[in-house]
Amino acid sequence: MIYSFKGHIPVIHESSFVHPLAAVTGNVIIGRNCYIGPGAAIRGDWGEIVLEDGVNVQENCTVHMFPGKSIVLKEGAHVGHGAVIHGANLGRNCLVGMNSVIMDDSEIGDECIVGAMSFVKAESKFVKRQLIVGNPAKAIKEVSDEMIEWKTAGTRLYQQLPTDCHASLREVEPLRSIPENRPVQEDFYKTLEQFKRNE
Fold first, then answer.
1. What is the CATH number of the domain that holds 27?
2. Residue 59 pLDDT greater than 80, yes or no
3. Using the 8-state DSSP alphabet, how is residue 5 labeled?
4. Is 54 left (phi over 0), alpha (psi -120 to 50) or beta?
5. pTM over 0.90
6. First to last CA, the chain
7. How many domains in the chain?
8. Secondary structure of 52-74 as H, E, C letters
9. Per-residue pLDDT tens over the stretch 97-146
């Protein structure tokens, strides 16, 4: 669902995928190889929202701001299921964990990781490579090379997903019984602990 608002029409690169059950409104620019999941709302009615290349905004996320503000989610930013980004800027290759809330005029630095269910209060500023957790959220340590390597690998899956969705996602009628030749899905994800052990 793509909507114009007061003459602003979203600009979405053809390589990106916006799920039909997502809503993108107004002054929104979405770069290359971005994934926008079902239930996501990216609302550029009161200001500009820019998603640089390789950003993913997963299911049931909200990206919005107060009037007169503009925000950028920089290249490779990764916004987990159910998160809210309200008037905040996200740095390159950062991760916002599931159901986190990032409030107005906050700055999440490059390669930061915000833990799931964290609350980043308005006007918070975090320099690059911080692990940010809690309510209110605080930086508790620096993100290691190993952690950012794991995060980057996970984001690559989402950067491949638009191509896969364009190629294979189709609305269908459900099957009424399990077929004998039901395909087996590939196991290509490692948890951080598995990644550390190189399993």
1. 2.160.10.10
2. yes
3. B
4. left
5. yes
6. 41
7. 1
8. CCCCEECCCCEEECCCCCCEEEC
9. 999 999 999 999 999 999 999 999 999 999 999 999 999 999 999 999 99
Which amino acid is located at 199 in the chain? E
Record the tokens describing residue 57, joined without a space.
């905004």
Three-state DSSP at 188 gives: coil
Among residues 78, 75, 83, 95, which one has the least CA distance to residue 39? 83
Instruction: Please say whether the beta carbons of 46 and 27 come within 8 A.
Output: no
Tens digits of residue pLDDT in 71-97: 999 999 999 999 999 999 999 999 999
Does residue 150 form part of some domain?
Answer: no
In a domain, 186, yes or no: no
**The pLDDT of residue 199 is above 60:** no
State the Cα–Cα distance between residues 14 and 4, nearest whole angstrom: 18
- Asked if residue 158 is part of any domain, the answer here is no
138 within 8 A of 126, measured Cβ to Cβ: no
Is 184 part of a structural domain of the chain? Answer: no
